Amino acid sequence: MPEHNPAVEAAVEAELRLLDPEVRRSPEQVGALLHPDFREFGASGRIWDRASIIASLATETEPGARPGITSHMKGVQLAPDLVHLTFDTDHDGRRAHRSSLWRLSGQKWLLYFHQGTLFGSVEG
Length: 124
Description:
The protein is an alpha+beta fold.
């Protein structure tokens, strides 16, 4: 059984909040979860910065949208202030492997970097 790690648990909790459609619709809530230097390599191939992803999520997430399915979430603490999460998502058949780096900033874990890679079949 994996050992209890408060840093990994905090990052997982924050990641799950960020995946919540209601949170995604709120620029204030999303902004509160993103590091000032946030970057993302999206599953679409687009590179996002903090401002562009906040704006995009606010307009692309419909009220009452269902959350996608998240699976295989694992985390490891790489340093006292850095956690790496990996997981898969499925949004109506659009599946992606995902990787997130969460940095401790003050007393809050903030998403520093995220990457999504589309995949079509289960890989070994």
